[in-house]
Design a protein that fits this description.
Blueprint (H helix, E strand, L loop, with lengths): L1 H22 L8 E7 L12 E7 L23 H16 L16 H22 L3
Parallel strand pairs: 1-2
C-alpha cells in the first residue's frame, strides 16, 4: 500500500512542476545577461526585452556597497594555511637577514632595500590616487 502511494506521488511530481510553471510566467530565466563596465557618472543602459544588464565601474567592481564591505584585516585564525605559511616565511626571512629582505642583519639583507623602497613608493602613489578619487568635486 505504501509503495503504491509513493509511486503515485513520484508520477505526479512532473505534472505539479508544469502547473507551477504555467502559474509563474515571470519566473523564466532571462535570455541574456550582459555585464557592462561604465565610467563614474555614466548611466547604466536599460535591458531590452528579456535581458538583464549588470553595471559596474572600474573603481567599484563589487556588487556589495562600500558601506557594507568589511575592510578590516582577516584574523590569522580565519586565514588559509597558505597565507599563514607565507607570513611566517616572510617574517623569518627578514629576521634572518636573507637576500632581498632589506635587513641590517645578515650578509645579504641590504639587497632588498631598493625593492622595498619601490614597493613603498607604489603603495604611497596608490593611496594618494585613492584619496584624490574620494574627494568630491
Amino acid at each position: 500500500m505504501i509503495r503504491a502511494i509513493a509511486f503515485a506521488a513520484l508520477l505526479s511530481l512532473p505534472a505539479l512542476a508544469g502547473a507551477q510553471d504555467k502559474d509563474a510566467q515571470t519566473g523564466t530565466p532571462p535570455q541574456r545577461i550582459r555585464d557592462v563596465t561604465i565610467t563614474k557618472g555614466q548611466e547604466c543602459p536599460k535591458g531590452e526585452g528579456n535581458e538583464v544588464v549588470v553595471c559596474h565601474t572600474l573603481d567599484e567592481p563589487y556588487r556589495i556597497p562600500k558601506a557594507l564591505r568589511n575592510d578590516k584585516p582577516i584574523p590569522a585564525q580565519n586565514q588559509s594555511w597558505v597565507n599563514r605559511a607565507s607570513t611566517i616565511d616572510d617574517v623569518s626571512r627578514r629576521a634572518g637577514g636573507l637576500p632581498d629582505t632589506c635587513s641590517p642583519v645578515g650578509t645579504g639583507g641590504q639587497t632588498g632595500c631598493a625593492m622595498q623602497a619601490a614597493k613603498d613608493y607604489a603603495a604611497d602613489r596608490r593611496a594618494r590616487k585613492q584619496e584624490q578619487d574620494d574627494i568630491p568635486q
